[in-house]
Amino acid sequence: xxxxxxxxxxxxxxxxxxxxxxxxxxxxxxxxxxxxxxxxxxxxxxxxxxxxxxxxxxxxxxxxxxxxxxxxxxxxxxxxxxxxxxxxxxxxxxxxxxxxxxxxxxxxxxxxxxxxxxxxxxxxxxxxxxxxxxxxxxxxxxxxxxxxxxxxxxxxxxxxxxxxxxxxxxxxxxxxxxxxxxxxxxxxxxxxxxxxxxxxxxxxxxxxxxxxxxxxxxxxxxxxxxxxxxxxxxxxxxxxxxxxxxxxxxxxxxxxxxxxxxxxxxxxxxxxxxxxxxxxxxxxxxxxxxxxxxxxxxxxxxxxxxxxxxxxxxxxxxxxxxxxxxxxxxxxxxxxxxxxxxxxxxxxxxxxxxxxxxxxxxxxxxxxxxxxxxxxxxxxxxxxxxxxxxxxxxxxxxxxxxxxxxxxxxxxxxxxxxxxx
Length: 421
Ligand SMILES: Cc1cc2nc3c(=O)[nH]c(=O)nc-3n(C[C@H](O)[C@H](O)[C@H](O)COP(=O)(O)OP(=O)(O)OC[C@H]3O[C@@H](n4cnc5c(N)ncnc54)[C@H](O)[C@@H]3O)c2cc1C
What we know:
binds flavin-adenine dinucleotide, alpha/beta, protoporphyrinogen ix oxidase, domain 3, globular, 31% helix, FAD/NAD(P)-binding domain, 7-stranded mixed sheet, 15 helices, Polyamine Oxidase, Chain A, domain 2
């Protein structure tokens, strides 16, 4: 089957939906083509035995008016941004360097002495040096250095600092000392509250966009002909377009264009992103009060977990609760078999003294092929080669993977809304 559309949007995640909204405002007609059977992309969710799970943590803290005008149409709950850290055998508040109180006195002295001896300036502009300069060697080694290897799947020295923004709390001597002598520390998180739909999972926030858009699900793009202005899909359909908007990962876009050698191919090969294994667990009772937490121990494969049933009680049957663990991989494939991941989460639950075998109703595995863009040094240079090519071809590109950036959902929406049509 062959058809023509005015604005062809590849991908029906929030960025594609933002682009569709932009098309409407410009008086143009957009059609979104989505590989999956449902829209939403990373913001979609799934149900296991009556428990609803998002695709990883997903909470909203946007103050942007364009975003709030849409998200706030859905009734929501608010949560304080109190997160926690698990380290060996104890829990520390977040950010960990400002909440050393639960540690042994010797450990605190060692960490603070090392903080006081930290370098005055950065020896080079990589993330490893940024951490040393901020926190000193011992805090870095014990907390963010270990976390980086789990979450980013590489050593901090291989990363740039361009992604940090508000994500990491800068170190202050007064805050570190205060948090070492009392647990009554203020919350310094970059957002004061997190919002989440009362019902329907995080995706409920974008249902108004989905309802307003024309979406063809079950359409996986398999080839893009930029000269002929057409896209071929896995189901055999071929669609021509006037304007193409991409939200697919840049390396995938380049491959779909049939580029197999040359600078464009080489640039695409340099762009790396993690994939994520999710282990979702249903419990027959409440197991924690923590909305989300970070895990540093190397024998626990997951770097982060959150509770869907705390995000909204509607995510679990009455009297039950849930957690979802995120385990990161350096590329598209899992580093572990699903059964091994499940076994490790079982081990983690016991080590953290959260739950025993008797509490667990089920454990479920899901793989997300695209997680976070990895900010290797010089990533931006390679990304620019692809962006320049797309601009020359008059292809609009937006979203977390279409811009190839560390975008939150509201930023991905605004990225779609900002395409030129
Ligand atoms: C672990 C994790 C936690 C996060 N937590 C938060 C949070 O708490 N708060 C927050 O605001 N943001 C969070 N985010 C960010 C948020 O998920 C993203 O910014 C946003 O969902 C990206 O939307 P997108 O449309 O750009 O990409 P996607 O949602 O990935 O959409 C791309 C779409 O393209 C489709 N597609 C792929 N290949 C093809 C193909 N060949 N043909 C057709 N379609 C295809 C995909 O199926 C998908 O639907 C988190 C992200 C991750 C990974």
